[in-house]
Amino acid sequence: MAAMSRETVQSTATEQNASILPAHGDAIRVVPLHQPNNALDAAIPPQLTYRNGPLISAVEVFTVFWGSAWQHSPQLDISKNVNQFFTYIVTSALMDQLAEYSVPSHPIGLGRFTGTTTLTTPRLGRTVTDSAIQHMLQQEISTNKSFPRPSANVLYFVYLPPHVKVIQGGGASCQVFCGYHNDINGQILYAVMPYPGCTGCMGGLAPLDALTSTSSHELCEAITDAIPGQGWYDDANGEIGDICAWRTKQVGAYTVQLEWSNASNACI
Ligand SMILES: [Zn+2]
Fold it and tell me: Which of 7, 79, 125, 257 has its CA 20 to 30 A from that of 104?
């Protein structure tokens, strides 16, 4: 795979996404698997353009750890660290760098982490579909008083435990993607993060670092393209994080992914 050209990677990703993403055409909204050649080598320079859809101005992140595995070590510690990561990162330089994508109706500023819950019901099987995740979110929003109501700023991050495969539109975690963000009728914004239990979703990182990298990817994409393909998007390269997939840096104590900057014409 090391000799694969970027064009081959691109066309493969396009084919995969065209076949698995019926809801919003072929909008790419996933973290792809790690490849040895994720480094950018653009024949066509990436350029995100704004499609007039919503952006998240002041993100309010609420995390949902689904499955009893999150109540025990080592997942319990990882869940606490993920919450600390969000508490820090939504007021960090990572948010500042997204300000270049502000538009008058949707200025992008700092956010906040609003809370977390661990769900042991409904019980998970070995696979969970995106529609089951949507159903869970809608049920919890309507019945669980500890769940925030949806809004244009609320972003639910759903974390799955080890050994649970996520199916989204015919693609599976660890086979096609390592995470994605989505919306329910444009009203409920959410991201789904499968546990990084395979080489393609570890990227050579420790599990927490892989999770903060992929979570930062989806956080920045949800903010700049809340309804996939309707915010800032590049028809050839996808969303802000896709262009720089698996290229990481440190912000504070955390590993995050580089994001495309139109202003810098680079992953920063
Ligand atoms: Zn992405």
Answer: 257
145 CA to middle of ligand 1, Å?
31
169, 130 in Cβ contact below 8 A? Answer: yes
Neighbours of 49 (CB within 10 A): 10
Q: pTM higher than 0.85 for the full model?
A: yes
- The Cα-based distances of 217 to 16, 49, 139, 188, 225 in angstroms read 19, 18, 27, 19, 12
In angstroms, what is the span from residue 27 Cα to ligand 1's centroid?
10
Residue 174 C-alpha to ligand 1 middle, in angstroms? 15
Residue 42, pLDDT score? 56
Residue 241 CA, ligand 1 centroid: distance in Å: 5
b/e burial code for range 94-104 (CB count within 10 A of at least 16 → b): bbebbeebeee
Q: Encode pLDDT of 177-216 as tens digits.
A: 999 999 999 999 999 999 999 999 999 999 999 999 999 9
User: Which three-class secondary structure state does DSSP give residue 105?
Assistant: coil
pLDDT at 262 over 70: yes
Taken as a whole, the chain contains a residue count of 268
- Where are the chain's structural domains? 53-267
Q: Cα(139) to centroid of ligand 1, in Å?
A: 27
Peptide bond into 228 cis (omega under 30): no
Find out if CATH 3.40.1350 is the number for domain 53-267. Answer: no
According to DSSP, the residues that pair with 180 across neighbouring strands are 30, 192
199 Cα: distance to centroid of ligand 1 (angstroms): 18
CA of 212 to the centre of ligand 1 (A): 14
Q: Which residues surround ligand 1, an ion (CB under 5 A)?
A: 221, 239, 241-242
